[in-house]
Amino acid sequence: MTAWVMALAERTRPDVPNYAEDVHPSTARAAVLVDDFADLFPVFKGWREHFGGDITTYALSFEEGEDWGTRWTEYGPPFRLDHMEGGWIQVSPDIDAKPKGRPLSAPTLDQDAAPAVEGV
């Protein structure tokens, strides 16, 4: 079964209005575990009312029994939720963040292997 974890982001750069730093749920001012993605929206609304102003959160899905804390630390949360004018919530992939975790290992080739394309 897929579940979701969401944490309140911190706006640490007032000079960059859209900047919001993802904070690990174990140290965030607010964090929640829910059973369904749709359950994040009423929580988001409650946090907006409690913390006021424009808020941003980050969310991560995980499978039951999976260590979501390590996954959050190594790869980062893939979804960002932002409060928009009029009470809307914008959900977007967190494409601005640099990837976290281990870099991909380059495939190893035999010393005698020829290039797949000549002249490369």
Instruction: Indicate the low-confidence ranges by residue numbers.
Output: 101-107
What does the largest sheet look like?
A: 5 strands, antiparallel
**Helix and strand run:** EEHEHEE
Strand order of the main beta sheet, please?
A: 2-1-3-4-5
pLDDT averaged residue by residue: 83
Total helix count? 2
In whole angstroms, how far apart are the ends?
Answer: 46 Å
Q: How much is the radius of gyration in Å?
A: 19 Å
Secondary structure: number of strands: 5
Oligomer: single chain
Class from helix and strand fractions = alpha+beta
**Percentage of residues assigned to helices:** 10-25%
Strand content: 15-25%
Shape: globular
Task: Summarize the helices and strands and which ones pair or pack.
Elements: E1 2-8, E2 31-34, H1 40-51, E3 56-63, H2 68-75, E4 79-83, E5 89-93
Antiparallel strand pairs: 1-2, 1-3, 3-4, 4-5
